[in-house]
């Protein structure tokens, strides 16, 4: 009798999770679901936005570094998994840098306000 009670409780717990919409980490990061962690802050007279976003594959992540400076030519760089991309822009324009690698790699970003 105890085994039947345990089985019923397991089924009820699973049903409750389905009804309440509880998602696992794998479900939350399902392919096609864009997750972004990009932060913008004012630095050295400009605005720097940097962070990560979902990649083009379920196993990849984009590394993003964008910088805006109103009066100087400037650059931004995104480095991850052996890839390094630098964007350069004139004053008053955004520089864009984005690279992509597997989720195990670390995203490194930087900017230069006086390129």
UniProtKB/TrEMBL annotation:
Keywords: Signal. Residues 1-28 form the signal peptide. Pfam families: Lactococcin_972. It comes from the Bacteria. InterPro entries: Lactococcin_972 (IPR006540). The keyword Signal applies. This is Lactococcin 972 family bacteriocin. It comes from Glycomyces algeriensis. The lineage of its organism: Bacteria, Bacillati, Actinomycetota, Actinomycetes, Glycomycetales.
């Amino acid at each position: 009798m105890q085994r039947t009670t345990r089985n019923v409780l397991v089924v009820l717990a699973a049903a409750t999770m389905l009804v309440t919409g509880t998602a696992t980490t794998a479900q939350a990061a399902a392919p096609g679901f864009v997750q972004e962690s990009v932060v913008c802050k004012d630095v050295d007279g400009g605005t720097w936005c940097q962070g990560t976003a979902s990649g083009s594959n379920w196993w990849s992540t984009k590394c993003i570094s964008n910088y805006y400076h109103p009066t100087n030519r400037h650059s931004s760089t995104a480095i991850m998994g052996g890839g390094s991309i630098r964007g350069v822009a004139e004053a008053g324009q955004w520089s864009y840098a984005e690279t992509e690698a597997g989720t195990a790699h670390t995203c490194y970003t930087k900017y230069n306000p006086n390129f």
